[in-house]
Amino acid sequence: MTELKNPMEIYKVLPGTNCGHCGVPSCMAFAALLIQGTKSLNRCPYLEKNIAEHLSSRIVKRRSMDDDHEEVINRLRQEVRHLDLSHVAPRIGARLIDTHLAVTCLGKDFFIDQTGEMTSSCHVNHWLYVPLLHYILECRGVEPKNDWIPFSELPGAAEWSQYFSHRCEEALRQLADAHRELLFEILFLFGAQAMTTAGKADHSLVIMPLPKVPFLINYWQPDEAFPSELNILLDRSAAHNINAHSITLLARGLVEMFRQLIISHSREGKLF
Ligand code: SF4
């Protein structure tokens, strides 16, 4: 039985009339949703039931990012089971409360038990869950020294540099340009501390996404001659406390969280 592994292969077995009766405007769009698993073939009324069932069994659905993260989380949780949390707590700057590690992220407590399960009064998502488990497993407890470097200078960052620059720094710059006051208000609510830096940015703030992994956010406002700029620097010690991919996830998750908060607080419910 030949497998159907991409939208084009699926498209070839659809009627191709683009009638829209399946709820999307074209057969190609329908094929793309079939491969993601968000629509099923029986939504096309022009395929006979037995043919639709046969074709369905040939479609190889794409794994989503959530599937991948769930697999990673399960693997990391297995590793956490072998840790002695009472030894881990002082090393990573956390507290042990009963049998749980209490790790402060942006001023909020997240609790991890011996099975690696995470709970918090805040929303828990994979942007934080994956880096936090890596942090618990890998952090060597090296203290930050106010020695700030770009993300690209960290070991293992090459693969993620472009993503970090585009999806984290650039995305945050756009939020700062559009909602400067609200964004900085949110940052201070999450424990940001203003600081003076050699780069003389208009705003320099340190936030603590993890106890030994500070981020320094520098923002230069736009003026008549120059567009705005924003960078996120890491302490050189981050190389010993967390891996580059986890930093990327963490930064991306923060930007997403700020974006959602801005949407929910802005009067029109619009970002830009
Ligand atoms: S209902 Fe069938 S034929 Fe019509 S657009 Fe959808 S997939 Fe194509």
Beta-strand content bin: 15-25%
Give the spatial strand order of the biggest sheet.
Answer: 5-9-8-7-6
Distance between the termini: 49 Å
Structural class based on helices, strands and sheet pairing:
alpha+beta
Mean of pLDDT: 90
Q: What molecules are bound to this protein?
A: iron/sulfur cluster
Counted by DSSP, the helix tally is 10
Cα-based radius of gyration, to the nearest Å: 23 Å
Q: Give the CATH topology of the largest domain.
A: TATA-Binding Protein
How would you briefly describe this protein structure?
The termini are far apart.
Structure description:
The chain has 272 residues and is α+β, with helices and mostly antiparallel strands. The protein folds into three domains: 7-58, 3-methyladenine DNA Glycosylase II, Chain A, domain 3, CATH 1.10.15; 65-138, no CATH class; 148-265, 2-Layer Sandwich (TATA-Binding Protein), CATH 3.30.310. It is 43% helix and 16% strand. The protein has ten helices and nine strands. It has a five-stranded antiparallel sheet with strand order 5-9-8-7-6. A four-stranded antiparallel sheet has the order 1-2-3-4, with helices on one face. The longest helix has 22 residues, at 244-265. The radius of gyration is 23 Å and the shape is globular. The model has no long low-confidence stretch (mean pLDDT 90). Bound molecules: iron/sulfur cluster (SF4).
